[in-house]
Design brief:
By secondary structure, the chain is an alpha/beta fold. Helix content is 32%, strand content 20%. A hairpin with a 4-residue loop joins strand 7 and strand 8.
Length: 198
Amino acid sequence: MILSEVEIPQLDCAVRARGYALAHGASAAPVGTEVAAILCRWQAGRAVRAGSVPHIMLAANRTELLVALDSGAADAIAPPVDADELAARLDLRIRAAGRAALVVGPVTIDPLARTVAREGVPIALVPREFTLLRYLAERAGQFATRRELLDQVWRLRLDPGTNVVAVHVSNLRAKIDRPFAVPLIQSRRGLGYRFVAG
């Protein structure tokens, strides 16, 4: 979830295309929702809180942009604002903030480089497979239902009535499991899919 104090045309679509949800207002995130980044309007004298959540400032001009960066903002942007560029900047800052590689059993996932390796062997994944694997690996051992995956990985609020999840899980298994002795992606009817450490 990205919190934004600023209304920017087309930003909601641009961040959704990168796998994030956008909420407007300082307290707009639902309780229990992890905030990945905060987009704020820069104000002179504003203190930028240090922490793991990057703050990206929208400055009125180049001078304010430089002051915002010098004051500790993770990034800053000045008008004219391109929604796709801003979404790319947000994605980069979020990945940089969570730059520690995720290691689950024999699999290493680097969220910044968007790379995956199993037992040191690099595995090429398309973006949706990467997002799916990361989601399952971050919840290793826990089942994720088809509905949950459609919501969290595909950002679909309505079930399209297709087998898109099963197809992507099958493709992911072909790359992550089949070349190796021990399968890490499991499925259980009625429970969904889970990633195990091996």
